[in-house]
Amino acid sequence: MALTGIQILKMLPKTNCGECGIPTCLAFGMKVAAGQIEIGECPYVSDEVKDTIGEASAPPIRTITLGSGDTAFKAGGETCLFRHEKRFENPTGLGVMLTTDMAAAEVDGRIERFNSIRIERVGVLMKADIIAVKDSKGDEGAFTSLVQKVLDKADDAKLVLISDNASTLAAAAKLCGERKPLLLGADSNNREALANLAKEQGCPLGVRGTNLDNTVEIAEQLLNDGLKDLVIDTGARTMKAAFEDNIAARRAAVKKKFKPLGFPTITFPCEMTDDPLMEVMIASVLVAKYAGIVILSDLQGDTLFPLLLERLNIFTDPQRPMVVKEDIYPVNGPGEDSPVLITCNFSLTYFIVSGEIEGSKVPSWLLIKDTEGLSVLTAWAAGKFGADLIAVFINKSGIADKVKHRELIIPGYLATIKGELEEELPDWTITIGPREAGHMPAFLKEWKPAA
């Protein structure tokens, strides 16, 4: 049962030292209760209290980490069924399958595509996260050789190692070192051996059940064995079964606090169909409901991009606008004769406009005014992008020290404030830019500062 901020406060030292970055212990307790900060951020709280509060305030879906350091991949940590209730925390991991019976050229191709498919959108680098390596021949040497190839050729890949043989997994896990893989293969027969291995290597353990009931049974036994970091594979190998199992697991964990299902799930569209387009459709359903990891048979830009974009949209916090910092952004190495443009700090607006300016090859200064994440017209209607506020920003920004001219280009949709802005900035000439960002390159190539 979750603790309230007051209950947490009673267990804190109540020194109000501020060393945690929060001014008072009460405020710190409230943030811990809301899941906005970890109890371990308090430097003076005891280990016993950390364990007590950490367990009580833990999300119903446990957070599982693959890898280590800043590049670690996290799955789970979810607290709700629907994004509008709060937000979804950790984006679904997308991965590709390699097996020991694949030809070397096919393995190399999949690793190369894992490394090369990188897509940037609204300032976010989108890519696959995981390479799953499966022992399909029962050959420890072939398995460890394949794992070593992935370690050598895919520096940022998080690994899922799949085998039901404890010694085979042990040999591969030792190769991974700090790149802590998920060890997938714990079933009713090898549970004890794999539990011991996971403890020894400090790796999360994957439960591989034959159905949902069998998965619960194995997970309960592993919890009793002292394992906490689990990922569950319910054995579903059809879209309908995987969809139903994921929903049942999330509901049981969130609504009923049912611990054996309180873990992220791993799903295998690669084993549900031989049709690449059907596989992507299945994956898209599982990204939405509620897979922690989705493993594909291969990665292709035209099929991976829709999944990356879906994931980006679903796991964007709907309660927090996507914004960029208010500042002066140089594009293409501008100088003192370069054009000066201004727009709002809504992320999508910034990246579209800056992208078009960059594509024009025209050196430019792009001013970003803080509009609390609102788009141009919405910000203007809300009184956050009016002539008076723009003028204050221009005068304080320091742009006048960077250019010789005094000409400001404003978005075409703000043509109505041109007169007001000229009154607020009498030393500046106000130019109306294009309404659509796509027209920006042609506009900039023709622009010249007033004589």
Task: Looking at this protein, list some descriptive labels.
17 strands, 3-methyladenine DNA Glycosylase II, Chain A, domain 3, Rossmann fold, alpha/beta, TIM Barrel, 3 domains, five-stranded mixed β-sheet, 451 residues, globular, eight-stranded parallel β-sheet, single chain
How would you characterize this protein structure?
The protein has 451 residues and is of the alpha/beta class. It has 3 domains: 5-57, 3-methyladenine DNA Glycosylase II, Chain A, domain 3 (Orthogonal Bundle), CATH 1.10.15.40; 64-314, TIM Barrel, CATH 3.20.20.20; 327-446, Rossmann fold, CATH 3.40.50.11600. 39% of the residues lie in helices and 16% in strands. It has an 8-stranded parallel β-sheet with strand order 10-9-8-7-6-3-12-11. A 5-stranded mixed β-sheet has the order 13-15-14-16-17, sandwiched between helices. The longest helix is centred in the middle third of the chain and has 18 residues, at 239-256. It is globular. The model has no long low-confidence stretch (mean pLDDT 93).
